[in-house]
Amino acid sequence: MRASRSGNILQHVDWPTIGMFLVLVIFGWMNIYGASYTYDQTSIFDFANRAGKQFVWILGALGLGGILLMIDYKTYDMLAYIAYGVMLALLLVTPFVAHDIKGSLSWISLGPVSLQPAEFAKCIVALAVAKYMSQYEYKVRSWRDLIIPFVLIGVPALIIMVLQKETGSALVFAAFLLVFYRQGMSGYVLLSGIAAVALFIISIRWGGTALPFGSGNVGILTCMLLLMIVEIFFVCRDHKMKYQPLILCGSVAVIYGIALIVNIWWTVPFGWLSVGIVGALAIYIVVVSLYFRKYALLIVAVFSLACVGYTQACDFVFNKVLQPHQRIRIEVLLGMKEDPAGAGYNVNQARIAIGSGRFLGKGYKNGTQTNMQFVPEQDTDFIFCTVGEEWGFVGSVAVLVVYLLFILRLFHIAERQKSIFTQIYAYSVASIFLFHLTINVGMVLGLLPIIGIPLPFFSYGGSSLWGFTLLLFILLRLDAARMEQLR
Prior knowledge:
Blueprint: H1 3-6, H2 15-35, H3 50-70, H4 74-78, H5 80-97, E1 108-110, E2 113-115, H6 117-133, H7 147-163, H8 167-171, H9 176-182, H10 187-205, H11 218-238, H12 244-262, H13 270-291, H14 297-321, H15 324-333, H16 345-357, H17 368-371, H18 383-415, H19 420-444, H20 462-480, H21 482-485
Antiparallel strand pairs: 1-2
């Protein structure tokens, strides 16, 4: 018997999660008012300001949540692929009907309001991924099993990044890697992603720093040395020949020693020399893998050679693919350029605002940095600055604690599911919220590049609020049906 027939569906809803949702929404609404407050405003319900408009979006979100809870839980599974197709079509149409807003083509105007389809795409993709990965006898046994899930998240991400020029919204889809890892994806895939980020940062940050000897730059040399370490580690781990680590490390050291001596008379291109050593080690790994039939080592060889090409392409991607404002933000973050009045202005003002709040804050609506509009996007992407300035360290920690409890609760909900579809969807939801929180707060604190993604339930905007509400309340409806699914 369905939960809705055996009793009120509200009896089966996870109320602690809804309670934390309401706390975050209400406190976020208060901070939107504090961030956009001017002394001539008399009420938080004044529809002429952002807080009044957000109140309308909140009422709509509550209504949306109620509707989602009343829908039969099987509907979300049945319509997942259809919704995915409609979503792709909408994402493709958006750049052609959207107005250019700060270089982005992701907003559709519907009369007096604007909606961003990319905010709703996360939920639809989560449903489609959950449906595919929950099909009968599906398991992640090899990389081939992940081709379709990667396509499901990659296609909308590329549309959003390339056509709509919304890098931040596209990067959110990286959160699904945690879901794939939970479902059996090798941890080496996550490590490969981390390695890609590390190599990019090193090659860009120190790519323009010349070596004090020979020719080449510090960035490429450092990247190649790291790849050598990876190659030697894996070949020695899987092929335990006596003294092999000493032989390989000693050979590399001898080559560099000879090169330093030769460099006294002739300039040695140490960058290309390092690339050659990495290539030679890759060939050695291929020979070892074929001779001893340790074919897994072939992946290490291919990975090493791919990384060599990747490091050579980083400069092209940085200078030719990224937008000028994106390059400047990365340069400021990595300390390559000082731009306190330009790209670094947001982060500097955010730090000033948060630091000025000290332990207990300046008080609600008393934030000088906020009220005087020193922080750009202070009620959207940089809303956490208002929390830090007006509520201080105590308030900021309290907000982060609520978010932490909220996300842990979502993971708890995921763990207790018997339905594979619901479990995968729940992990997707939790991962997306975790990604948003980490990137947004890290961005505001100057620890991560500014990529422009909202803080869930806090940042001003109907698309953001409704998108997160859609994610959460579909999960709550699926979770409420878990007892029914056991019957």
